[in-house]
Write a structure and sequence with these properties.
homodimer, 198 residues, alpha+beta, seven-stranded mixed sheet, redox-active center (chains A, B), antioxidant (chains A, B), peroxidase (chains A, B), oxidoreductase (chains A, B), EC 1.11.1.25 (chains A, B)
């Protein structure tokens, strides 16, 4: 199922802002990440930025976290998201099911977003999701670019962001991958789908 | 005083993260904006994005606001800012003095930030500043680039942002301009300084 999604092509390109409810429908295949990919090898030298307050950022001397430290021996659910559907559906769908992920032996549920870590922290706090989910910023988009999951969403006044996607990762290896046809869709990246793939 | 600030050079370049408390100290002069500059002419074809919720963004078909509609006949205080000092000092300093600006005949206090308009909206709501201040996003940084007030703050995990600055603008013309030596400084761009320049 994941590979079917990977091989998909967009049914229709977005032709006007009137159709913007499906923002960023894509006609691209994803070459850099697939089932079997080692996330750490696919994005060498990439670090993420743990969500935190500005003051914590200053105290930490703006430290970052290498991917290998995030995906060491563990099973993780990794999700990429952006403003909008994300706040109302995507993050809550995982936040509400955290006990089911734990019951299946998942060590960590991780949300990576093309945002600075301070914005991401404020957003995570507003969603009351920090206890269940680890939030990491990808402020320069390097992680998503490495995986070819980056997406220009300037049409929605967002600039360079990411596809909406989810992955089940064990010891750094991708075991399942789901990518929405358009980042404004929420069909294959919710918690229920990936719970069935574990 | 404003022109003295425009001509300033940085006392020291930032040499390590240990010195990051003064993030982004600059050695650049500002050629594109000065006292007397017409903001609309200096940034032709640039629009800003009124801060709003994601749902309002979708409803508005992601509309933007041309500079000429923001700076038509009126006197405005314009401020550029970013996360950090901004939340604790910069925005509150204007929010708390709004009555003094009104008493001096200022029509609008405007905050422009290199953020998407939804993030900016969430931040403005958290600061309880939306009644006093108009917030506009500059998500792609075009406004700040046109004025040569853009600034790479990747060292603070923020990416392309802006200088910290304030301006007193009448009918689009800059009457006073203040730019901090480093965006983490808060010496010349607070409400008290510009109140004395009106």
């Amino acid at each position: 199922m994941a590979s079917a999604i990977l091989k998909r092509v967009s049914a229709s390109a977005m032709s006007s802002l009137v159709e913007s409810i499906r923002i960023g429908a894509s006609s691209r295949n994803f070459a850099a990440v697939a089932v079997g990919t080692d996330i750490v090898s696919a994005a060498p030298d990439v670090s993420l930025q743990k969500a935190r307050s500005w003051d914590e950022g200053v105290s930490s001397k703006f430290s970052t976290t290498p991917l290998k430290d995030i995906f060491k021996v563990c099973s993780s659910i990794l999700r990429g998201a952006y403003t909008g559907v994300c706040s109302q559906q995507h993050v809550p769908s995982y936040n509400n099911k955290i006990d089911e992920f734990k019951a299946k032996g998942i060590d960590s549920v991780i949300c990576v977003s093309v945002n600075d870590p301070y914005t991401l922290n404020g957003w995570a706090e507003k969603l009351q999701a920090k206890d269940a989910i680890q939030f990491f910023g990808d402020f320069d988009g390097k992680f998503h670019k490495s995986l070819e999951l980056d997406k220009d969403l300037s049409v929605a006044l967002l600039g360079p962001r990411s596809e909406r996607w989810s992955a089940y990762v064990v010891d750094g290896k991708v075991k399942a991958l789901n990518v929405e046809e358009a980042p404004s869709d929420f069909k294959v990246t919710g918690a229920d789908v990936i719970l069935n793939q574990i």
